From TrEMBL:
It comes from the Bacteria. The keyword Glycoprotein does not apply. Its main location: membrane. It is found in: Cell membrane. The keyword Nucleotide-binding applies. This is ABC transporter ATP-binding protein. One of its GO terms (molecular function) is ATP binding. Residues 16-261 form the ABC transporter domain.
Amino acid sequence: MVPKRELPVVSGDPLIELDGVEKVFTVRRRAGRLRRTKHEVRAVDGISFRVPRGEMVGYIGPNGAGKSTTIKMLTGILVPSGGRLRVAGIDPARERTRLTRRIGVVFGQRTTLWWDLPLKDSYELVRRMYRVPDAVYRANLARCVELLDLAPLLDVPVRQLSLGQRMRGDIAAALLHDPEVLYLDEPTIGLDVVSKAKVRSFLREVNTERGTTVLLTTHDLTDIEQLCRRVMVIDHGRLVHDGDLAGLRAAADGERMLVVDLARELPPIEGVPGARTVKVEGPRQWLAFPATASAAPLVAAVADRYPLVDLSVREPDIEALIAELYAGGGAARRKPGDVDPGAP
Ligand SMILES: Nc1ncnc2c1ncn2[C@@H]1O[C@H](COP(=O)(O)OP(=O)(O)OP(=O)(O)O)[C@@H](O)[C@H]1O
């Protein structure tokens, strides 16, 4: 579940706005020995959403869904084929340089740091590139060094850093110029548990303390669970969910599990309305029931007729739910125009 925490001030004014945004790539494929045919790939197929200032939003989807393409359009690297896109009121493709000062970007699979330079020299170059005022630079660097444990790494050339160290270095580099928006594309990919925890708590702090708006792309759903109240799911270039995680669970028709320990081994529990026994292991039995239903009446029904010793309720495995969502199982696939941009 999303941990209870102080929430940043989310203002109504949208910082990121997309209206029917499309990106179509034309690719040539071999068709025989000499012939090549042209094909269109609709990487982003009419996406609309708004992200208010101060929000941290998850942007997830299977491989090839269109996440990176969206982020590249939001940075101005790619020009949309259609629709309207604004970040802090700026059209990224038209005014990329002006936008650069207001956004920070971390692509987990690639570094923006200088491979042969010590980390601190990379930061110095970032300072000059963005013309960050001295006092701002010093304060931001000190904060990142402290919270991301960078002190022992500052004199180490980037190529000698481990993946987790490099990622922390990259995240700091993206924040030295005080961006209003931070795009993170797989910031925890390949990191060990400790590094992931460090990165997550830092991002939470940046979002809550600074009010930095964050768009987070990840395959690790724990990132989403721990950081985002709102999650958007993209599939085949279309938005198929925009809301909270609970809504995503419900959309995927997920089931929760009531695990009961009986006083002794018994045949599978029967006759509990709204639940079915899916597993029996000695005196322990597993009963599946709809994610949206309350467990209380089930517990009462079991306790009434069986020698109940202990129980627990397990949340559905979100990854399984999302796999189901992608497969179309139970998910109400909405057209982009149907999505409530103000969700959650
Ligand atoms: N430059 C390009 N030329 C042609 N097709 C492209 C290009 N970039 C992306 N695509 C295609 O667009 C679709 C969306 O790709 P994109 O990289 O945005 O997906 P993604 O959701 O970020 O996937 P992943 O999780 O694997 O990174 C894919 O079918 C991809 O092959």
